[in-house]
Design goal:
Strands 2-1-3-4 form a 4-stranded parallel beta sheet, with helices on both faces. The protein is 41% helix and 21% strand. The chain has 4 helices and 4 strands; from the N terminus they run βαβαβαβα.
């Protein structure tokens, strides 16, 4: 059986380890991760589509822009409590994402 190729476009680097953790021991999916927001995310999505990706996963405005640019299905990940906490900490001057 062929693996499903998933493209995940993360808005920030801190989300990448979470995605990689989900991929451990997974035999059904081939997950490709790129970090890019808005237009950068669209560029990654277009490149992934050319490489034969089956489904794209992103969030927020990036997911909306990607959905308009590609013909493959796009899944929108909703904002979590982690995202809100990260935004508050960044607004308060904390820039080291590993603290989150």
């Amino acid at each position: 059986m062929r693996k499903i190729r998933l493209g995940f476009i993360s808005p920030y680097v801190a989300m990448v380890p979470l995605i990689e953790e989900l991929n451990k021991g997974n035999d059904d999916f081939d997950i490709i991760v790129q970090v890019g927001n808005l237009e950068a995310g669209v560029n990654y999505a277009l490149a992934m589509e050319k490489q034969g990706i089956d489904i794209l996963i992103s969030r927020g405005g990036t997911a909306n822009l990607v959905r308009e640019a590609v013909s493959v299905p796009v899944i929108d990940v909703h904002i979590s409590g982690y995202d809100l906490l990260r935004s508050i900490m960044l607004a308060n001057g904390y820039s080291d994402e590993k603290k989150l």
